[in-house]
């Protein structure tokens, strides 16, 4: 039995929908169905009533979720305690943050809180949202920090984890400039000319936000998907070299825009606001993290 199967079942119980649960768990619906089936085979009884809509758990499924949630939390707390010997010395926190945020937001954020609360050591690991959620759920970090948007929400069990909004970032379409300083590739209201599109990979959370912008925009540019990557910094360099237009967090491109290496390729219709959220486990007793979290909560008041 794999512990991620329990989280899969909890997602189904929360959403009552396999498709939505799969999106939350960052896997395909078929993969989620296979994992739920594997859990049922391990337990020996059906946990999900597949003949109802919305999806309901069986009586055994409800009992398993109730006790499995507590057992998983205790197991992860034990694992975290056993791994505490691998922590950095002294006052320290371990953070898993999105790739872009680990390079742009997190260093400034740490500096702000160290000026206020005194020095603490930190270990920062860059990861995608799915990896960051798993790291927090498995007790491998004190905090996870990631972008949150309605088109790509971060889902964590509110009984086990607490989240706070700690910032925001604009999500902008950018392009290299032409000789006059205008966008080499401009998002127009209409037109037959294809625009090369530097896209995120299918499973990327920022990719879902970009696709949501395109899906809901009133006008539809003709984009030709010519390049894919899962890291915003790679797409930023491709855009800077003139390969096409890409959507990027403002924090990742503000210096490039200020220097004229990149320009904004479309107006408000083509932009979005990303929220920056931090999450912690309610079972975490690291005093440095708790002091930092208390400071975050004071800022919200």
Can you describe what's shown?
With 301 residues, the chain is an alpha/beta fold. It has three domains: 3-83, Arc Repressor Mutant, subunit A; 91-150 and 278-300, 3-Layer(aba) Sandwich (D-Maltodextrin-Binding Protein, domain 2), CATH 3.40.190.10; 169-274, 3-Layer(aba) Sandwich (D-Maltodextrin-Binding Protein, domain 2). Helices cover 44% and strands 23% of the residues. It is built from eleven helices and eleven strands. The strands form three sheets. Strands 3, 4, 5, 6, 9, 10 and 11 form a seven-stranded mixed β-sheet that branches. A two-stranded antiparallel sheet has the order 1-2. The chain has a two-stranded parallel sheet with strand order 7-8. The longest helix is centred in the first third of the chain and has 25 residues, at 59-83. The radius of gyration is 22 Å and the shape is flat.
Summary tags:
301 residues, alpha/beta, Arc Repressor Mutant, subunit A, D-Maltodextrin-Binding Protein, domain 2, 3 domains, 7-stranded mixed sheet, two-stranded antiparallel ribbon, 11 helices
């Amino acid at each position: 039995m794999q512990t991620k199967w329990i989280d899969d079942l909890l997602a189904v119980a929360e959403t009552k929908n396999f498709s939505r649960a799969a999106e939350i768990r960052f896997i395909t619906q078929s993969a989620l169905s296979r994992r739920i089936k594997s859990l049922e085979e391990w337990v020996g009884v059906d946990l999900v009533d597949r003949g109802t809509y919305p999806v309901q758990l069986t009586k055994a499924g409800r009992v398993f979720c109730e006790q499995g949630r507590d057992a998983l939390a205790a197991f992860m707390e034990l694992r975290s305690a056993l791994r505490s010997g691998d922590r950095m010395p002294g006052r320290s926190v371990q953070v898993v943050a999105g790739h872009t945020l680990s390079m742009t937001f997190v260093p400034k954020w740490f500096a702000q809180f160290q000026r206020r609360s005194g020095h603490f050591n930190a270990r920062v690991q860059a990861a995608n949202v799915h990896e960051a959620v798993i790291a927090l759920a498995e007790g491998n970090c004190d905090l996870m920090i990631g972008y949150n948007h309605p088109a790509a929400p971060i889902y964590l069990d509110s009984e086990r984890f607490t989240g706070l909004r700690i910032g925001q970032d604009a999500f902008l379409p950018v392009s290299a400039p032409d000789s006059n300083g205008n966008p080499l590739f401009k998002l127009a209201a209409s037109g037959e000319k294809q625009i090369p599109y530097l896209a995120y990979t299918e499973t990327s959370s920022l990719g879902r936000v970009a696709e949501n912008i395109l899906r809901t925009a009133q006008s539809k540019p003709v984009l030709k998907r010519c390049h894919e990557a899962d890291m915003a910094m790679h797409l930023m360099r491709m855009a800077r070299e003139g390969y096409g237009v890409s959507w990027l967090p403002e924090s990742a491109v503000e210096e490039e825009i200020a220097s004229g290496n990149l320009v904004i390729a479309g107006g408000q219709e083509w932009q979005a606001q990303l929220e920056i959220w931090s999450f912690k486990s309610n079972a975490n007793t690291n005093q440095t993290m708790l002091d930092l979290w208390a400071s975050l909560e004071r800022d919200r008041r």
